Structures are given as structure tokens and as C-alpha cells.
Automatic annotation (TrEMBL):
Protein name (Swiss-Prot/TrEMBL): Alpha/beta hydrolase fold-3 domain-containing protein
Annotated ranges, domain Alpha/beta hydrolase fold-3: 45-162
SUPFAM superfamilies on file: alpha/beta-Hydrolases (SSF53474)
Gene3D superfamilies registered for this protein in UniProt: alpha/beta hydrolase
Transmembrane segments: none
Origin: domain of life: Eukaryota
Record GO terms (molecular function): hydrolase activity
UniProt KW keywords: Hydrolase
InterPro entries recorded: AB_hydrolase_3, AB_hydrolase_fold, GDXG_lipolytic_enzyme
């Protein structure tokens, strides 16, 4: 098995909404891997893909952390890649429902659904992981189901701090890698203004066309400072918060009620138990700022949660995706490459320790 080719998988439907099926791909370790590590059953690594919560797929492709998946399988860990409700017109409350539905399926139905003779999975030993927007879902899962998760692995995850000006302030000049401002809101409102109760959810959207409105939806949220409106399903939440001084925003969120507060993982850290967490984030990330992981790490540490943060110097957004590091300025620096590789190599041993 190599990191650039997808191994065989079993695909299952774990939830259905308005006629739309939610799938998970289950990659199983072989029995020899379990025997080598003296396991009777396989721990589980659940993964959610990136895409700004607006696009992306569960597929094993050049964007997934195969550098983690392949050695995890070789260490006797099953890897599950899940679909989830993409934003627009649906909110992040649907995503939390997806998480709960997935855990119910994995805990009570997945072993029976696997072909006869398959290795058995151990739903009492689950780690969750996500890249970029998938990190937000991993945080949401850890906050909603802390007793069922042994570890969190965040790869430049969003959601560490969604109350910054980056998410709340309207932008009047190009703000992301020179990309021009959007001038027509109509294609985005056509997605967002549909009825969430009667519109079938979008659970998968590939990204070949970077100019498709769904692939630009996160950019629209950032430009208009309106991400929190769609996350929470509460129109006007972003506008109210952007008028508030940064130190007072968390308090104001709580005054808005649970619709807003429950979609902000950063507010759950001090209120509930949170699993041990490891975060990797590039210092040159211009989409999900390093400050998000720094902020979450500080909160977890203050709350007494075990946390490790690896800041990958020179790493941009998706620095671990196939070809990204090699084609970046940091990729030409042997010392930075060595340190990046060292950070990646630290993840699996840490995770194995938590899944004992």
C-alpha cells in the first residue's frame, strides 16, 4: 500500500435525510496488523474532509492525510471517512446531528454490516480527525460526545476561534491571496435562501471547478462576514457580533441563546470534558489562521486538557496534501522539511498511546 493509492474499502449508509444517503467509507487493517500489535479488535480513526464546510467529498484523494491513514492501517487501526451536511441552506446543527448519527451506526451497527470474516472494530476506542473544515467537525464531535472519543487530531482545523474579525468583518478589498472580491451575491443567495426544512441536503460536492458558487461559498462568507449566520441558522448574528469589542463577543454569543453558542466549539472547552488533542498548523496559513489553533490550545491547557500544538514553519493551508509542501518555498528548505516531517511523524505514536 502507498500513500497515493486508495486501499479497498467497504461503503455503508449511516443516515438518510429527505431521500439523501450519508455514506462512510471503512478501510480495514488486515488481521496480520492486528496480530502484530496484539489486538483482538481494531481501534477506529474517524475522519472528516475539508472544503470550507461547503464542498469536498469523503474520497481518498490527494487532499486526505494518507501519511497518517496508511501507517494507521499498518498499526491495526481502522480508518473511516464520512460524509456530512454541507452548509447552505442547512446549518451546522445538522452537522452535529450527522456526528451523533454516525457514532450510533459505528457503535451499534457497523460490525454487523461488515462482511463475514472481517476484523472486528472496537467502538470503545475511537479517535476523531479532520483537515481544515473537517477539524471543526472533529471539535464538534469531541464537545458533543467527549466520553466516546479518546483523542482528537486536528490538521489546520477551523473552529478554534470563530469570533475574530477574519470571520465577522465585511471585506472591501481583496483579502485572500489576491483573489478578487465577489461582485454578484445572487449565485450564493440562491443556495442559502432555500428552505432548510424542505431542501434535500448536499453531502458531497467535488471541487474541479473552483469558480462554482458552492466552491466559492466560504469566500462569500468571509467577504460578507456572515459565516456565523449560516453556521447557527440565525440571521443577523454576525452583524450583531461585529459591532461588539472582541473581548465581549463570547458573552454576547451566550446572550443570543443556544442556536449560536452550540455551533462554536471554542465555547465548549471550559464547560465540558474534552479529549486529549493534538493540533498541526502551518505558520503561513492564510485561510485558517494559526491563531485559531493557538487559541484553542491555550483554552484546552487552561481547562486541564492534554494538548500538543505543532506549528509547522512555512506551512500553508493544506501543507500535508500531495505536492503542496514540495511546491512551496518551505519545501526547498531542508531544515523546515525535516521539522515538518518530524511533526507529522509524532501524530501516530501519540494517537496509538491514547487508543490503548
Amino acid at each position: 500500500m502507498t500513500t497515493t493509492t486508495s486501499p479497498p474499502c467497504h461503503t455503508f449508509v449511516f443516515k438518510s435525510v429527505l431521500g439523501v444517503d450519508y455514506h462512510l467509507d471503512c478501510y480495514l487493517p488486515d488481521q496480520a496488523a492486528l496480530d502484530k500489535h496484539e489486538r483482538d479488535s481494531a481501534p477506529i480513526l474517524i475522519y472528516w474532509h475539508g472544503g470550507g464546510l461547503c464542498s469536498g467529498t469523503r474520497a481518498w484523494n490527494d487532499l486526505v492525510p494518507a501519511w497518517l491513514f496508511v501507517p494507521a492501517l499498518e498499526a491495526g487501526i481502522a480508518v473511516l471517512s464520512l460524509e456530512y451536511t454541507l452548509l447552505g441552506p442547512h446549518s451546522a446543527h445538522c452537522i452535529v446531528d450527522n456526528v451523533r448519527g454516525a457514532f450510533e451506526f459505528v457503535s451499534h451497527k457497523l460490525n454487523d454490516a461488515l462482511p463475514a470474516g472481517s476484523v472486528r472494530l472496537d467502538p470503545a476506542r475511537i479517535a476523531v480527525s479532520g483537515s481544515s473544515a473537517g477539524g471543526y467537525i472533529a471539535y464538534a464531535a469531541a464537545a458533543a460526545l467527549p466520553d466516546r472519543i479518546k483523542a482528537v487530531v486536528s490538521l489546520y482545523g477551523a473552529g478554534g476561534d470563530l469570533l475574530t474579525d477574519w470571520y465577522l468583518q465585511e471585506k472591501t478589498a481583496p483579502f485572500l491571496d489576491g483573489f478578487p472580491l465577489l461582485t454578484d451575491a445572487a449565485p450564493f443567495r440562491a443556495i442559502l435562501d432555500q428552505s432548510a426544512s424542505s431542501t434535500p441536503p448536499t453531502v458531497s460536492f467535488s471541487m474541479p471547478d473552483p469558480l462554482h458558487p458552492r466552491n466559492l461559498l466560504l469566500y462569500y462568507f468571509l467577504q460578507t462576514g456572515s459565516l456565523l449566520d449560516t453556521l447557527s441558522g440565525k440571521s443577523g448574528a454576525s452583524a450583531a457580533l461585529r459591532q461588539c469589542p472582541r473581548p465581549d463577543r463570547a458573552r454576547l454569543v451566550r446572550e443570543h441563546g443556544p442556536d449560536v453558542a452550540t455551533v462554536l466549539p471554542q465555547l465548549w472547552v471550559t464547560a465540558r470534558k474534552f479529549p486529549p488533542t493534538i493540533l498541526l498548523h502551518g505558520t503561513a496559513d492564510t485561510l485558517v489562521k494559526l491563531g485559531e489553533s493557538r487559541s484553542l490550545a491555550a483554552q484546552l491547557e487552561k481547562a486541564g486538557v492534554e494538548v500538543k500544538l505543532f506549528e509547522v514553519e512555512g506551512g500553508g493551508h493544506g501543507f500535508d496534501a500531495v505536492g503542496n509542501w514540495e511546491n512551496s518555498p518551505a519545501g526547498r528548505d531542508k531544515e523546515l522539511t525535516r521539522r515538518k516531517d518530524e511533526a507529522l511523524a509524532a501524530v501516530l505514536p501519540w494517537m496509538l498511546e491514547k487508543l490503548k
